[in-house]
């Protein structure tokens, strides 16, 4: 690497970057890497969204019962536990980038099996493999957070949720466009189309850098320096950031070796001891925060709207399949176009303000939807204004979700976890997310048959209200702070010793 005193440019010799890179170009490189990584989230959204409409045709083609459809639709979230609980271990072992490559392969195989299935068993096999891919998608916000510039981290980590919703929308669009094909062919093509972005992700990972923070904890300081130089505005910024990462990883800041030896045998044991067995008060608070925010994201009922919106709109008075799928597609569109609001504002007004606004809006919208559905249940005839109230309630709900809990739950979780514990800690959060999601989606039909569909949404409204209170009381702001600085937000660190031997105590 060479630095020009006059132009402040950095010349790089990496094979993927043949020309000199200036600061703005490096920002584009970080953004491009985040976009490629987000394709794994797009695949997650597509495979969930495609099932929303495909279940109508699967039920008719294979003559399945409501219970079988309910299980088939929701079980993928429990299957995803196999992925989310191993994704942290995999990403710590083979790297964040290689884990994304593995995710692409899984997303290729799963939908392919579903597309060629002729019975319930093989669809379940394909959905099991797809569920593992959904679990592995947890690595997306971890990777993006670790390669993003501080000033753009909120924006870029929100790309993952935007990609999920673009995937959902594409799934809804495929439902709508393929609905007029034969019942035997339509649902198969809906899942087969999901193979295309899996191939693009696999090739895209070849051009992405490895996470510099993962390289540091593996002792590859020289490669970490090279990656940071390609991602930051100047060589000085890269050196400063590398020093902060080394300090967080327990490596002396003045170490100049390109490769250092890092003990391998005790890594898993020490991670789980620090995270679960013997956590410090600050780590315990961080973990509880991550688990709680992931719980509230799913327990507030978002996937009942994502997966069962045709049924919800049918209860509101709509009849034809094309109308139901069209309304579902509209909900997906509103949810997708709302996310850029969070992406733009998260680095300006902050994560906490958006989360408070989003959860409060979700609670109010769910009450509106519940009232509309309650009126429908008590009315002998379908009235247009009631249908409009229900549609507005759904659209308002998904838009508030998309400016708050949607993009920011995983982004916030990725930010607050300490470097050494980040992959495993976020994976535990994802496990909580998928467990709750699976329970909610697999019990929704039974729940609304027991307490009415209006009562179900009143219940979700209460949980959204609790989420608002939790965010207001428990979540500090992370806007404008480096990942290393954020570690001090959740409690007092033990006394640390700097290189000069002086004692330093950091507190909130």
From TrEMBL:
It comes from Rhynchospora tenuis. One of its GO terms (cellular component) is membrane. Its main location: membrane. This is Major facilitator superfamily (MFS) profile domain-containing protein. Residues 33-479 form the Major facilitator superfamily (MFS) profile domain. It is a multi-pass membrane protein. Keywords: Coiled coil, Membrane, Sugar transport, Symport, Transmembrane, Transmembrane helix, Transport. Gene3D superfamilies: MFS general substrate transporter like domains (1.20.1250.20). The chain crosses the membrane at residues 29-49, 69-87, 99-116, 122-143, 155-173, 185-208, 283-302, 322-342, 354-373, 385-410, 431-451, 457-475. It comes from the Eukaryota. Residues 221-248 form a coiled coil. PANTHER family: PROTON MYO-INOSITOL COTRANSPORTER, SUGAR TRANSPORTER. Belongs to the major facilitator superfamily. Sugar transporter (TC 2.A.1.1) family. The keyword Transmembrane applies. GO terms for molecular function: symporter activity.
């Amino acid at each position: 690497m060479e630095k020009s005193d006059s132009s402040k440019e950095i010349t790089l010799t990496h094979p993927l970057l043949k020309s000199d890179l200036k600061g703005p170009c490096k920002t584009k490189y970080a953004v491009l890497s985040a976009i490629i990584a987000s394709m794994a989230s797009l695949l997650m959204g597509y495979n969930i969204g495609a099932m929303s409409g495909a279940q109508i045709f699967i039920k008719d083609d294979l003559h399945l019962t409501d219970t079988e459809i309910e299980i088939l639709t929701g079980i993928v979230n429990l299957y995803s536990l196999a992925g989310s609980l191993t994704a942290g271990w995999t990403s710590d072992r083979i790297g964040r980038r290689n884990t994304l490559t593995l995710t692409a392969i899984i997303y290729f195989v799963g939908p392919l099996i579903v597309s060629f299935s002729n019975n319930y068993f093989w669809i379940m096999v394909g959905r099991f493999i797809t569920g593992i891919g959904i679990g592995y998608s947890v690595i997306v916000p971890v990777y993006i957070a670790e390669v993003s510039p501080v000033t753009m981290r909120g924006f870029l980590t929100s790309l993952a949720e935007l990609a999920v919703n673009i995937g959902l929308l594409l799934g809804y669009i495929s439902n709508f466009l393929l609905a007029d094909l034969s019942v035997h062919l339509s649902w198969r093509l809906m899942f087969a189309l999901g193979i295309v972005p899996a191939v693009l992700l696999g090739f895209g990972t070849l051009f992405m850098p490895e996470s510099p923070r993962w390289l540091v904890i593996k002792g590859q300081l020289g490669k970490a320096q090279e990656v940071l130089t390609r991602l930051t505005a100047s060589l000085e910024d890269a050196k400063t950031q590398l020093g902060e990462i080394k300090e967080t990883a327990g490596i002396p800041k003045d170490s100049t070796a390109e490769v250092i030896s890092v003990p391998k045998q005790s890594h898993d044991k020490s991670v789980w001891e620090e995270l679960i067995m013997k956590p410090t008060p600050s780590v315990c608070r961080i973990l509880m925060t991550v688990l709680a925010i992931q719980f509230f994201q799913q327990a507030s009922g978002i996937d009942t709207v994502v997966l069962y919106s045709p049924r919800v709109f049918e209860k509101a008075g709509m009849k034809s399949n094309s109308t139901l799928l069209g309304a579902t597609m509209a909900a997906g569109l509103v949810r997708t176009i709302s996310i850029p609001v969070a992406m733009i504002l998260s680095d300006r007004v902050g994560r906490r303000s958006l989360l408070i606004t989003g959860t409060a809006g979700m609670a109010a919208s769910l009450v509106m939807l519940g009232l509309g559905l309650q009126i429908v249940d008590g009315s002998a005839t379908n009235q247009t204004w009631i249908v409009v109230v229900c549609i507005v309630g759904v659209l308002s709900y998904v838009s508030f979700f998309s400016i708050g809990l949607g993009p920011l739950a995983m982004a916030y979780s990725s930010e607050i976890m300490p470097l050494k514990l980040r992959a495993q800690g976020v994976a535990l959060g994802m496990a909580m997310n998928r467990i709750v999601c699976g329970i909610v989606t697999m019990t929704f039909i039974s729940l609304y048959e027991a307490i009415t569909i209006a009562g179900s949404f009143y219940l979700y409204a209460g949980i959204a209200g609790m989420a608002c209170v939790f965010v207001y009381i428990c979540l500090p702001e992370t806007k404008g702070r480096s990942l290393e600085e954020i570690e001090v937000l959740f409690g007092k660190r033990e006394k640390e010793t700097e290189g000069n031997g002086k004692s330093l105590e950091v507190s909130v």
